[in-house]
Amino acid sequence: MPVVETASRARVDKRQAILAAAFDVFARRGYAQACVKEIAEVAGVAKPTVYNHLNDKETLFRQAVDAAADAVLAQNLAVVERLREPGDDPRATLEDVAYRLVRTCDDERSRSLKWLTYAQVARFPDVVDAVHARTGLRLAEALADRLARLVLAGHLRPCEPADAAEHLLALLTGPMEARSGFGMRKVPTAQLRAVAVNAVDVFLRAYGA
Amino acid sequence: MPVVETASRARVDKRQAILAAAFDVFARRGYAQACVKEIAEVAGVAKPTVYNHLNDKETLFRQAVDAAADAVLAQNLAVVERLREPGDDPRATLEDVAYRLVRTCDDERSRSLKWLTYAQVARFPDVVDAVHARTGLRLAEALADRLARLVLAGHLRPCEPADAAEHLLALLTGPMEARSGFGMRKVPTAQLRAVAVNAVDVFLRAYGA
DNA sequence: TCTCGATTGAACCCGTGGGTTCAACATACT
DNA sequence: AGTATGTTGAACCCACGGGTTCAATCGAGA
What we know:
By secondary structure, chain A is mainly α. Chain A has 9 helices and no strands.
């Protein structure tokens, strides 16, 4: 194993640790209240080391949020991909996907990411746009693609897939926001299921074949 | 006119001016970035005068948000009240109410209130709960009441009014959030109409008689 | 063992801004 | 006129925290 690799590996690991710690602390305290000293402590690293890897607090924030957004997007896309094989019971498949989506929305990282970006609209409007593009728009596009296929397969009535996707997501995220207190607390599993089933029921009444 | 009244009136007016200025500045800058000096300037008042009426920055924030939440709630309830006389065309009435609701969601004060409270979840979780109770829950209750009557009148199919209200609101606010960039920019009137009409269409397909 | 780069902790600088003090002043009431 | 209350501006105190500096230290490779 080449030496240079272990060295740069160590560097990368520290950088990752710092970014993870940054997201953690930002998520708990918010941008203004998060102090770099605490981030360094959580990362198990000295404060100058933080500034050695990331230029300043703002860079720290952007990189941490970027990484989290990528992770959440991947998670969501993986769920939507399950609609590729709708099987013989589209309702069951949709309920399964819907349930997995609300569970994803309910996990720690998604909730933190959402309110954290929302909270910093005033200071970093572009961060909000970037995150929303990756988590909101891309998800809607992917879902619209799958719904279009369901229309062609005769499982849904003819409609505009983009609208249908927007509506299904709204029926999922709206009730979730209310129940999670703007993403501050976890929602009981039973309610997750109920939200998913109800949303799919309304969706199929409106868009079913 | 009694003198004492002019005196206390002057006091009240200044207090109101300070709270209005506070909400204005908080909405533009966010809590951490808003400085009391600027609030005083906007209110046309000296800094010690601010501290003379409100104890500290936190009180300033809470009172300003409280007042705004009350105003927004009143605005929303007034709109929902229009469902009391559904007329002979429930779809038209629902579209009218839906359009007025999204317009309310889109106005300056509502958008500011929403992201401002959302942004301060970490520091003041109870403020979020209070605002959400007044703007979200109370609105959903009022709407559920009206929908229940529509069910009895045979304009909607038998259903759980609370669920129906939640779904209609989700179909309205979900697309609005996406289009307004998390409440940061105004949405063109044409899109407001489209969101309202689409939402009501889906709603009636799912809940129509 | 020697070297070089990364890391560390601690101290430091300094801008920002919440909150207070105080003497001067305005206004309204007696 | 005299008094009391509220207001003003300016200066002040002080905590907090971003960002930097530096000498000491550590660890991997030659």
